[in-house]
Amino acid sequence: MKMKILAVANPKGGIGKTAFSVNTVHAAVEQDSPTLRIDFDKQGSFSLAHPHGPDYDPSKRYLKASDLFYAPEKSADAELEYLAPGQAIIRADYDELLKLEKAPDDFAKHPGRYLRQFSDKFEVAVIDTPGTINMLLKAALTCADAVVSPLTLGLYDTAGLAQLWQIIRDVKSGGFNPKLRMIGMLPSKVDTRDKMAMAELDALRKHPKFGPAILPFMLAQKVPVARAINLRKPVWKGAKSKSHREAGEQWKQACDHVLTSLGSK
């Protein structure tokens, strides 16, 4: 077993990175893949999406995201927090990650080295990233095998694609992670009833530079989808309406596609 690491990244907040990270984990679990969740966003939404498992012991010291940036000796007394057999999480710790945001870029190389010790324990690791450009985002891209980038439609959102492209280029060409693969960009929070948004998506798919990287899926913005996320359920489970079923199928197909492209199966 060799763990494959996926970074879900875009240097903009509020575009659905955490929702897609969570549902990708749901898809991996449904494939019986031992999965490690890693939260590099100090806001901790990815951590919040995963309640403690039945064996959680508040008296124990569990490995936190900031621990990955230091020598293992510093966290020798920490252990992985398991949510279920084969399912673990490394949670965000706000204060320490806040300090690390402005750490030297060389720190970005540390988590990949630390995570090697778990390579034979998990098939998949999913990293949720901050919606801003800082060392933590670079660290996620540095230790990842591949990256998928949710994006929303709109003037300010699509204008940031060039910025995202530049960050990935910097990581690949700057000696941080030359083998990083871009799985693609995933239209997220799409209002399928908005003709202007759908026209913009069509134009984006035809863009000579970005178009080839846009995945053939879209994550629709619907009330049942948001409700499923709030209930910590896969978007595709328990759909009652036709629109919810259709949206759920798109989410499931997108998550499965990303896992297949990652090479987890």
Q: Any overview of this molecule?
A:
This protein is an alpha/beta fold and 265 residues long. The protein has one domain (4-262): P-loop containing nucleotide triphosphate hydrolases (Rossmann fold, 3-Layer(aba) Sandwich), CATH 3.40.50.300. The chain is 37% helix and 15% strand. It contains ten helices and eight strands. It has helices at 17-30, 45-48, 94-100, 110-115, 135-143, 155-159, 161-173, 195-205, 223-230, 242-262; strands at residues 4-8, 35-39, 81-84, 87-90, 124-128, 146-151, 181-190, 219-220. Strands 3-4-2-5-1-6-7-8 form an eight-stranded mixed beta sheet, with helices on both faces. It starts with a strand and ends with a helix.
Structural topology:
Layout: E1 4-8, H1 17-30, E2 35-39, H2 45-48, E3 81-84, E4 87-90, H3 94-100, H4 110-115, E5 124-128, H5 135-143, E6 146-151, H6 155-159, H7 161-173, E7 181-190, H8 195-205, E8 219-220, H9 223-230, H10 242-262
Parallel strand pairs: 1-5, 1-6, 2-4, 2-5, 6-7, 7-8
Antiparallel strand pairs: 3-4
Helix pairs in contact: 1-10
